[in-house]
Amino acid sequence: MSSQPPFPAFRVLISHDEILRRTHELARAIAQATGDEPPMLVAVIEGALPFARLLQRLLPGQLPVHEVRASSYGSGKTSSGEVKVTVGRDLGVRGRHVLLVEDIVDTGRTVHALQRHLLAAGAKSCRVAALLSKPSRRVVDVAIDHVGFLIPDEFVLGFGMDLAGRYRELPDVVVYDADVERAFTSAVAAR
Length: 191
Ligand code: IMP
Description:
This protein has four helices and nine strands. It has helices at 16-34, 49-58, 109-120, 178-190, and strands at 11-14, 40-44, 65-71, 84-87, 97-105, 125-133, 146-150, 156-157, 173-175. The strands form two sheets. It has a six-stranded mixed beta sheet. It has a three-stranded antiparallel beta sheet with strand order 1-9-8. Helix 1 crosses helix 2.
C-alpha cells in the first residue's frame, strides 16, 4: 500500500480550521447586520456552495440556500470578461433582502452582474458575503459587505473552488501549482 496522499501537495493558504473560525465571525456579523428580517441566501454555484452551507448552519432560522450560476470562467483560469446569469434567473427575490454568497471575488464582474440582475428582479437589497477576495485583480468596483480573507493574486483551489472541475473537494484553500500537479500525476502513473 502507498502512503501517497490522494491529491497533489499544493501549498495550503487557508486551512479548514481557519475557514471555520472566520465563517463563525462572519455569520455573527451577518446576523447582526440583518436583524429581524432574515436574508435570502443566494449562492453562486458551484464554488460557493460549501461556504454557503456553512453559513446556513451558523445563521439563525434554517434559511434555504438558493442557487445562481453566472458563467464567466469557462473551464480555464482566465476570465472571458462577459458574465451571463444561466441558472436561477427567476428566484423570486422581489421584496426580499438578498445575501449573495460567493467563494471568491476576483475581477468583480460576476458579483457586479449578479447584483444588477437581482436588484432588477426586485430584490430590496443585495449584500455580498465572499469567503475570499483578491483586491489586486479588481476591474469592477464592487462593495463586499462581508469578506472572509483578502488574498494575493494567486489561483486557489479547494473548499468548493476548482480548476476545470478538479480539487473542489479539498478541505483547505490551496494554491494551484502546475509543477506540483505534474509531479503528482507522474508519481501516480509510475506506481
Ligand atoms: P470574477 O467575476 O472575476 O470576480 O470571478 C469570480 C469567479 O471566478 C469566482 O466565482 C470563481 O468561480 C472564479 N475564480 C476567480 N479566481 C479564482 C481562483 O483563484 N480559483 C478558482 N476560481 C476562481
